[in-house]
Specification:
- The protein is of the alpha/beta class.
- It has a single domain (3-276), classed as Metal-dependent hydrolases (TIM Barrel, Alpha-Beta Barrel).
- 35% of the residues lie in helices and 17% in strands.
- It contains 9 helices and 9 strands.
- It has helices at residues 20-29, 52-55, 61-74, 95-103, 133-150, 180-193, 201-209, 219-227, 249-258, and strands at 3-4, 34-41, 81-89, 109-113, 156-157, 196-200, 233-236, 263-268, 271-276.
- The strands form 2 sheets. The chain has a 7-stranded parallel β-sheet.
- Helix 5 (133-150) packs parallel to helix 6 (180-193) and helix 6 (180-193) crosses helix 8.
- The radius of gyration is 17 Å and the shape is globular.
- The chain starts with a strand and ends with a strand.
- The relative contact order is 0.16.
- The model has no long low-confidence stretch (mean pLDDT 94).
Length: 278
């Protein structure tokens, strides 16, 4: 199995509906090797349609660290990992603030994500979908490529296909061919930095619920990432509630193997760790 590198807990992430104890119990029941807790850090979150708590989603790191220590101490000595991370919501002007946040605590891994385009988060607001599919995919991936190049310090780039979950299209799964030039720039930047690409099971589950014929990550994206020298791929559930851990993981591992990957990765103390895809 895997270490799930993308999870949120209450009260530290304002949209989470699980405690750390519930998260760990869910992941252990699913047979995972461990989890990384990645609470939302969203400075300058701009979407006026979002509920107020999200706007100030900067969590109390000291209290979160105490909770993490308590849960770790309560576990049996069986090797299950409870890792400390954060999910930093990127906007281009936030480089210095991100660097300061990353240095502020001994994190195991830093997950970098983009939720906002043109001042709107598609989770709350459909404004970005007024553009055509091709225009939006190209714009989204151009921003992903810039983020991968410019962000000062991260380990994993999270849910590159985030917006697709909320797209009004009949088949919203993001493909390489939706924006080939921008996708090439994105994958090249990520591979050049030696950063990891997250495959997000929440997106896969959403595609499956919408009846998409192939809900798994696009083969061409994975194949091209590997061709460009990308070796690091992680799987994250983006969990906000228990009960979702481990879902679609065997299918994603199978897709990775089809595309030539032999290992899945996670981070401990900001150092990469690989597990074989069996």
């Amino acid at each position: 199995m895997i270490v799930d590198i993308h999870n949120h807990t209450a009260p530290h992430s304002p949209d989470a509906r699980q405690s750390l104890d519930e998260l760990v119990a869910s992941a252990r029941q699913a047979g995972l090797y461990g989890i990384m807790v990645t609470e939302h850090v969203e400075p300058d979150y701009p979407d006026p349609l979002a509920p107020d708590p999200v706007l100030s989603a900067l969590y109390d790191m000291e209290e979160a660290a105490r909770t993490l220590a308590r849960v770790r101490a309560s576990l049996p000595d069986d090797g299950f990992l409870v890792l400390s991370g954060l999910e930093f919501g990127w906007m281009p002007h936030l480089g210095l603030r991100m660097a300061d946040m990353v240095r502020s605590a001994p994190f195991d891994g830093i997950l970098l994500s983009m939720h906002v385009l043109r001042g709107h988060d598609p989770y709350f607001d459909s404004t970005i979908f007024h553009a055509s599919r091709r225009t939006l995919c190209r714009e989204w991936m151009a921003h992903q490529a810039a983020m991968a190049r410019e962000a000062p310090d991260f380990d994993i780039l999270g849910h590159y296909d985030y917006f697709s979950r909320y797209a009004p299209w009949e088949d919203p799964r993001l493909r390489y061919d939706d924006a080939p030039d921008e996708m090439e720039a994105f994958l090249s930047a990520l591979a050049t930095r030696g950063a990891a690409l997250e495959l997000n099971t929440r997106t896969v589950l959403r595609m499956e619920a919408l009846g998409v014929a192939d809900p798994l990550p696009d083969r061409r994206i994975l194949e091209r990432f590997r061709e460009l020298g990308g070796e690091r791929v992680c799987i994250g559930s983006d969990s906000h509630e228990p009960g979702v851990h481990g879902k679609k993981v065997p299918d994603i591992l199978g897709r990775m193997a089809e595309c030539g990957f032999r290992h899945i990765c996670h981070y401990v103390g900001r150092e990469v760790r690989f597990l074989p895809i069996s």
